[in-house]
Amino acid sequence: MDTSKDMLIGLVAIVLGSIFTITFIAIESETGIIGLIALSGAAVVLASRTGISERISNAFSSNESMMNSAVLVAVLVIIFWFREDHFSLLMIATVMLYLTACLGLNIQLGYTGVVNFSGAAFFGIGCYTAAVLNQNTGLSPLIVLVIGGIMAALIGSILILPMLRTRGHYAAVVTIAFAILFKTFLEVNDTLGGAQGLKVPGMEILGWDFNSNIEIGDEIELSFYLNYVAIALVLSVLAFILMRRVERSWIGLNLDAVRLDETVAACFGISIKRWKVTAFTMGNFLIGMSGAVFAMMLGFIAPSNFAFSDSLMLLSIVLLGGMGSPWGTVVAAGLVILLPEKLQVIQEYRFLLFAVVVILILVFKPQGLLPRGLRAYIPGWRG
Amino acid sequence: MATSTNTPQTFKFYRELYILKKVIQKSVVSAIALTMVLSAGIGLAQAKEKVKVTFIAPLTGGVSANGIGGRNSADLAVQLRNADANAKYEYELVALDSECKPNVGVQVATKAAADKKIIGGVTHYCSAVAIGAVDVYKKFGLPVIVWAAVLPDVTYGNKYKEVHRVNGTMINQNDTAANFMAGLGYKKWVVIHDTTDYGKGHNKYFSEALAKTDGKILATFGVTSEQQDFTAELTKAKSLNPDVIYFGGLTPIGVRIRSQMEKLGLKAGFQGTSGIMSEAYLKGLGPLSEGTVAFREGAPIDKLPGGAMFVKKYKEQGYSENPEAYGPFAFAAMNLLLDTIEKVGPDRKKVRKALNKTADRDSIVGKITFDEYGQNTVAAITKYVAQDGKWAVWEDSEYGSGKRKLTGLK
């Protein structure tokens, strides 16, 4: 009975959210940014006290396709708002690519419980694949993008051997070792540009150069980053759908069983190895693909982009958003990418404030921003 | 019909409306008056047009001390200019943090370059960031002056008219190093370098420069910057019996290599690059640092033409951090940029053109002349030697005067 009212509240929340996002991206003054952060904190507290946030989440679970499309429309509006603003679009695309990568990580960590401390390394594999292929071959970037994902998955499958033989902390150490190994390998490898890095030619599909501004008539000149935003949006939407589908399928059920208790899962005839390999490969594929687009967009990559600290940043997005929660990942990716950038105004103190914000969030929401709810097998199904 | 509206209620209503009208009128009048006064006041204070310039450096992370020192120095240049009554514009410094990471560097470079209000920039301490960001400047047409990144490719790797650099490159440093050391009478070298772009670049350019002299490199070793034990490399080096060990890398492993040389009884001279020129090197080694030779662009601050003025003004501004080695370069670069904007106006294309033509300009780091790549050709390299726990300029040192002798010289 309340569903239509909930939906209305949900839609209003989306509208307010997109207004907030636009203001947050556009604002430049120190007081404005810190004010906005305080305002959003207050709004979140107020919403949870008055039960509004619960109603919003109800709206999302009971009218899923409707709400998802509404969010998509909101994102399109935000993109359209910044259509001529290079920098804002670059930030938006970066958020989306990190979101895609983190959705991949979420399949590994959030669903299956496979800890991956080398996310940035797999991201880097995608980047370097794109760089090498774009420099040396005339392959279409869309194929390059897929190859980037496949390469990450393939190299990940080498890593899977020691990972399957170890558990828990030990498996985590294996991935940490891989992250460090990957960076050192790049630094000493001269054909891949060594420590200095590599230039990556931009995307070009059938004569459509992604790196020049889109001109429509004489009046309208749109930022060339719009091209990358479009591709990043498609990728992240696909990754989001994939994650949701996996969760609701028997695959997701198996993954959850593996995470919750390996022994019990094995007793029920679930192959631990099989599902760990599946999740790890699927996640790495997504991470590698987003890396490939990221490299082409940025135009320059170097090993220092793929340090252990960057892997931690990817993981922190997953944890901050709430493990296994795609919407949480969306919010957290926006926060972790945009906030340090907006805090440029306070210069050398920006990471200090950023860290304080993150700690505050985790103090008040230890499960992450939007913790994963109960499994819903059918959209709108409420047990 | 018409009279029926004149009930007491309507009268009251009209009276209220009248009062409201008066209030609005009054407030509008006063608002207009206030705006006029304010705008006159602002008009006086803001007679100058506002112009934005950017500064990019690592302000957080491992090398942030250098970045913050440069930021303060650039800020000093802007502050001094704003205090100058003759300046045509009022400048606002937009300082951005690159974290010494290429991806963040490209991001902030895009932020600065896409902002049409920013006319020019003084950018980059880290070479890896600079090399990634130059394409962005080219794409958006933002004229920049690099203040500290030493990788030659930043200017020589492209023909971008937007990119300039006031500091010297590794090439200058190693040309001087090779000629000077060979001139002293050294013949046989063993090269150890770290495998970062910094170490590898130094190895490359030192080898090239040394090939032009009669010096010879017996062996070259690449080591990672985390390596602790150098016994293998140094034992091999010892068997080759070199006159001098050339080390291309930064202080931490420089200290380790120098002390392990002593342990293995490797008696040879020790020659470093600008990377070991720090207090930490001298403190870490104590008396062992004696006689280490190193090279750095620019003269020491007290020998610079405007060095004393710079130090004095820097102190007056009350920055809590030191300007560090490259601070004067940031100051000089920012001054050059502001001078150019003063001359041709806040227009990116005109500023770019004028900067390209910079020749024989005085600055606190010496004369500045840009070649066709935008590289400052007058790069002063100063030779230093560690003497009694201090970095002394070679010419003023007891080694230079012949009182003391370097190890490994025959």
Top keywords for this entry?
heterodimer, A: 383 residues, mainly alpha, ABC transporter involved in vitamin B12 uptake, BtuC, 2 domains, two-stranded antiparallel ribbon, 6 strands, 4% strand, globular, B: 410 residues, alpha/beta, Rossmann fold, four-stranded parallel β-sheet, disordered N terminus
Shape of chain A: globular
Greatest chain-chain contact: A-B, 28 and 37 residues
Number of domains of chain B: 2
Order of strands in the sheet with the most strands of chain A? Answer: 1-6
The assigned CATH architecture of the largest domain in chain B is 3-Layer(aba) Sandwich
DSSP, total strands of chain B: 12
In angstroms, what is the radius of gyration of chain B? 29 Å
The gyration radius over C-alpha positions of chain A equals 21 Å
Mean pLDDT of chain A, to the nearest integer, reads 85
CATH architecture of the largest domain in chain A: Orthogonal Bundle
Write the CATH fold name of the largest domain in chain A.
ABC transporter involved in vitamin B12 uptake, BtuC
**Biggest sheet details of chain B:** 5 strands, parallel
Low-confidence stretches of chain B: 1-5
Instruction: Give the DSSP E fraction of chain B (strand runs of 2 or more residues).
Output: 15-25%
Shape of chain B: elongated
* Helix-strand string of chain B: HEHEHEHEHEHEHEHEHEHEHHHEE
Describe this structure in words.
- The complex is a heterodimer of chains A (383) and B (410).
- Chain A has 383 residues and is mainly alpha-helical.
- Chain A has 2 domains: 81 residues; 281 residues, ABC transporter involved in vitamin B12 uptake, BtuC (Orthogonal Bundle).
- Helix content of chain A is 73%, strand content 4%.
- In chain A, strands 1-6 form a two-stranded antiparallel ribbon.
- In chain A, 44% of the residues are buried.
- The model of chain A has no long low-confidence stretch (mean pLDDT 85).
- In chain B, helix 9 runs parallel beside helix 10.
- Chain B has 13 helices and 12 strands.
- The radius of gyration of chain B is 29 Å and the shape is elongated.
- In chain B, the strands form 3 sheets. Chain B has a 5-stranded parallel beta sheet with strand order 2-1-3-4-5. In chain B, strands 7-6-8-9 form a 4-stranded parallel beta sheet. Chain B has a 3-stranded antiparallel beta sheet with strand order 10-11-12.
- Chain B has 2 domains: 198 residues, Response regulator (Rossmann fold); 145 residues, 3-Layer(aba) Sandwich (Rossmann fold).
- Chain B is α/β, with parallel strands linked by helices and 410 residues long.
- The chains are: A mainly alpha (383), B alpha/beta (410).
- The interface between A and B is medium-sized, with 28 and 37 residues.
